[in-house]
Design a protein that fits this description.
homodimer, 22% strand, Arc Repressor Mutant, subunit A, 9 helices, Jelly Rolls, DNA-binding, 45% helix, alpha+beta, 10 strands
Chain lengths: 233, 233
DNA sequence: ATAAAAATATGCTGTTAAGCATCTACGGTT
DNA sequence: AACCGTAGATGCTTAACAGCATATTTTTAT
């Protein structure tokens, strides 16, 4: 989108800061294969089935990564926050994407061209090891998530999602409001339930004064109880 | 178990074959930090919460890796087959184990001491990249599995598990019998259902001549239909 | 060989959450 | 401001599956 001025150099520096132990020559190489683009809320960044073009980084905004399940019911598998990578799994596994990425708000994303990055990785063991570690951590999350989504009851799943969103995006200055505004449908798709049940369960938690609702603004009033609901409910 | 003669050298060569691009010096180093042990059916190899001692490799036998869920209901997150690694996620993520590994039959496992391996990885980018790729692939599996376990119906989940077991352990010489003999409970824990429902659903598939049951022996009579049930049921 | 324990089979009941349908509130467009 | 479309709220009904009880078979230990 040419009408938006993106400070590519700032974005580049921010993205590079995510890499550790980058040699000057490697940094130059990345600079030459680095692109930025402005993405509108609701726009798709990549789709399930597509070939990964490179390493994608979220510089500004929020992005959900989801898989379409049986009967058009989506499951959100990841929420990206700035500054951080996403959509790298498929690239490293040498596979097509197995999920779709969509901007939740107007965002700026950067891409490092695939071959450029792979070349660097093949000679920089430290960097490769660093990424390996991230993948191992994420695999742990994913395994935990499988247990959560299959075994916890609706209230527990929703409570966990709210805590997850708080931990991922933080709180507003009031120290209570979760810094992300999701539709009830997205909240449902994150927590493996129908939209109706997300609405119902949110109302329930609100009636019990565990949370407070104001449209899509969600305030956590009683984090301790929410945590208990997540762990035992 | 000293009364069992394990051919450590053969095991060592088999394990090394899993690594690609191993330099002679690195191989020597691994040999010096390589141990083997005999594990009885039902024995625990590592437990949820423990510190990973090193890279574990299954040389002979079968191993399940599971997480204890809410209310003592386990979820099997991985099935290891020889010759292959398991329990490496926690080590690479620098975390304690988040699951328990138990031998499904008498097995031989080998361990490469942790620091030894990490040292090699930090200088061998090719090898590190290879492992990175494996982790990325496994993360894809895990994400797919989350969708399956949460969205498919019982029949679909069980059918998928049977196909998964066939693909993991292969078939007996008759070309039909799955080469692993799990309890109904393990089958249930693999498919996210109660033992009762695993038994019921297996009986159902047997009545429909999709599979044949003889104790723990499971024959796939109609792989095409089983596949359809997995994908649509 | 026999007792005890574990695994398997099967039926019945209850709960959870999905599937709908209906109604209301809100947001963006003309 | 009036319109439309989407999102949110809420109630009712039903399907899927868990939970439990009991019976039977198989395995393990002594």
């Amino acid at each position: 989108m040419a009408h938006h001025n993106i400070d590519v150099q700032s974005a580049f520096e921010a993205v590079c800061a995510l890499f550790h132990n980058l040699k000057p020559r490697e940094k130059e190489k990345i600079r030459a294969n680095f692109t930025c683009s402005y993405i509108r809320r609701g726009e798709i960044i990549f789709r399930d089935g597509e070939v990964p073009s490179g390493l994608v980084c979220l510089y500004k905004g929020k992005v959900k990564i989801f898989k379409e399940g049986v009967g058009g019911r989506d499951q959100i598998v990841r929420m990206a926050r700035p500054v951080g990578f996403f959509g790298y799994r498929a690239m490293f596994a040498d596979e097509n994407h197995i999920a779709t990425a969509e901007a939740l708000e107007d965002s700026i994303i950067c891409t490092i061209e695939r071959d450029c990055l792979l070349e660097i990785l093949k000679t920089n063991a430290n960097l490769t090891f660093h990424i390996l570690k991230s993948l191992a951590t994420e695999l742990g999350f994913s395994n935990n998530r499988t247990i959560t989504l299959t075994q916890k009851h609706i209230r527990g799943r929703l409570a966990e999602s709210l805590l997850f969103l708080r931990d991922t995006y933080g709180l507003e200055d009031d120290g209570q409001t979760i810094k992300v505004y999701l539709s009830r449908e997205d909240l449902a798709n994150l927590s493996n339930m129908t939209t109706s049940n997300a609405i119902r369960t949110l109302s329930g938690l609100c009636n019990e004064s565990v949370i407070d609702l104001d449209g899509r603004r969600i305030k956590i009033l009683d984090a301790y109880r929410l945590d208990r609901i997540s762990n035992l409910g």
